[in-house]
Design a protein that fits this description.
This protein is about 60% helix and about 0% strand. It has eight helices and no strands.
Length: about 220
């Protein structure tokens, strides 16, 4: 987390924070445009749980979306949450993003319904859960503020990690997988990255009242 108050440093850090999430978001859009523009069907690049031939989908699932509404919602959330991750947790951001990407896909492949699962929502949920729980665990005011902001904007996401209907078209398993990974990462990396400052009292500056007589004490 940047503590340098220099405006030029803050500007550079901001651009750095948005670069990787924005670049990945561009790749998602390009993949979607190519698929629809060429009238192709990329759904088999998603994940079909417990089918070994779909294991590569763990790495390609975030680049496959059903329609414009699906991809726009995922990209906006991913860029916002990813930028917050890189801005406030820049020291561990690459690890959090990579582990979220791979592990959420592996869990989905393990627990998901036997159907094709596509989209980047698993990754989005992992980032949201990490940012929320990490701020609470670290008890550092700026990070707690991020937790509150995430809960305020994305709080309703928690309801989508549960099945609401028998043939739910939304991959709640993908959401649940991402949520589990985000929570686990917030615990695993609780001692890495930004931490709550430790207050150190300077004992030399403390006043020993017993060392003053009554006249001197009245002048303090």
């Amino acid at each position: 987390m940047p503590f340098n108050s220099n405006p030029s440093y803050q500007k550079r850090h901001f651009y750095y924070a948005i670069f990787i999430p924005f670049a990945i978001g561009i790749l998602m859009i390009l993949s979607f445009i190519v698929e629809k523009g060429m009238n192709w069907d990329f759904h088999t690049a998603g994940i079909f749980p417990r089918r070994f031939e779909s294991l590569p989908g763990i790495f390609s699932i975030i680049f496959v979306h059903a329609d414009w509404s699906h991809i726009v919602n995922n990209i906006i959330s991913f860029v916002i949450l990813g930028s917050l991750l890189y801005y406030f947790y820049n020291e561990i951001a690459n690890r959090i993003l990579l582990i979220s990407y791979v592990l959420s896909g592996i869990i989905l492949w393990t627990i998901g319904r036997e159907n094709w699962h596509i989209g980047a929502s698993g990754l989005v949920y992992s980032l949201a859960f990490f940012l929320f729980f990490s701020g609470i665990i670290r008890k550092h005011v700026p990070l707690i503020a991020i937790s509150l902001a995430v809960s305020f904007v994305y709080g309703s996401m928690v309801w989508h990690i549960f099945p609401w209907q028998t043939h739910d078209p939304i991959s709640w398993e993908g959401h649940l997988s991402g949520g589990i990974v985000g929570l686990l990462l917030s615990i695993w990396y609780k001692n890495s990255g930004p931490q709550k400052p430790i207050v150190i009292w300077d004992e030399e500056e403390e006043i020993d009242i017993n060392s003053y007589n009554e006249e001197e004490l009245s002048e303090i």
